[in-house]
Design a protein that fits this description.
By secondary structure, this protein is α/β, with parallel strands linked by helices. Helices cover 35% and strands 19% of the residues. The chain has one domain: Rossmann fold.
Length: 248
């Protein structure tokens, strides 16, 4: 049940037809797993905590570095050297003390992911490398849970969501099977601070829609060109012979 304080705090979204009291109660009971608490994970976690999501599980094995601060907006100069998950928890607790923050200072691997996903209602992949994204994709597919993937580099952002509770949903593995990804990251190619935030906002929006049951859009690959400030959307039909989603 929502309290009087809840009605005041979340009034601007409760009044939305797509959210309402039931949607807010769904948020107050939901657990979101966020893998990677960097340029994507920081704003995504902020928006989910601010929206009233009950529990966030934060997964990252890195510490806060000076080069993070221009885009990883949960962190401050005083937190340099701290584990990212702990530094993020401090900031998120100040934003919404009612949101439970669980810290997992570890890497997301085929071995650790099943346990991490067990209690999650929705998964946000905010990682920064292909191997991790493919591992998360496999685990989410096998678990039959919604997955929202974001990426950002230079002045470009991408977001795609999958609903693995549906049959023949397609997945990230069959999306990229014919793409030869270059070994680029922010340290070698650079990134403009607001670009990860754009992708993260879309991830948070999709996660909230998945939780409240409001038109969760799956299999739509959205690409943002920051130079032209334009979006390109491509429907991903999935591969019926994919070794991941077609088999499971």
């Amino acid at each position: 049940m929502l309290s009087g304080k809840d009605y005041i705090r979340y009034s601007r979204q409760i009044m939305l037809e797509d959210i309402g009291e039931q949607g807010q109660e769904n948020l107050a009971a939901a657990t979101a797993l966020i893998i990677g608490i960097g340029g994507l994970g920081c704003p995504a976690a902020q928006y989910l905590a601010a929206a009233g999501v009950c529990r966030l599980i934060l997964v990252d094995d890195d510490n806060v570095e000076q080069s993070n601060l221009h885009r990883q907006i949960l962190y401050t100069e005083s937190q340099l050297g701290e584990p990212k998950v702990e530094a993020a928890k401090t900031s998120l607790n100040k934003l919404n003390s009612a949101t439970e923050i669980l810290c997992r200072q570890q890497r997301a691997t085929d071995e650790t992911l099943p346990e991490l996903l067990a209690d999650a209602d929705v998964i946000l992949d905010c990682s920064d490398n292909l191997d991790t994204r493919l591992a998360i994709n496999r685990a989410a597919c096998f678990a039959g849970k919604p997955l929202i993937i974001g990426s950002a580099i230079r002045m470009e952002a991408q977001v795609i969501s999958f609903d693995f509770s549906r049959n023949n949903s397609g997945c990230y593995a069959c999306l990229v099977e014919n793409i030869q990804e270059q070994a680029l990251d922010c340290s070698s190619a650079g990134v403009l601070g607001p670009i990860p935030g754009i992708a993260a906002s879309m991830q948070a929006l999709s996660a909230i829609k998945a939780i409240v049951g409001c038109d969760f859009i799956a299999n739509l690959w959205q690409c943002f060109d920051g130079r032209q400030q334009k979006w390109l959307s491509i429907q991903h039909p999935g591969n019926p012979e994919c070794d991941v989603c077609a088999r499971h």
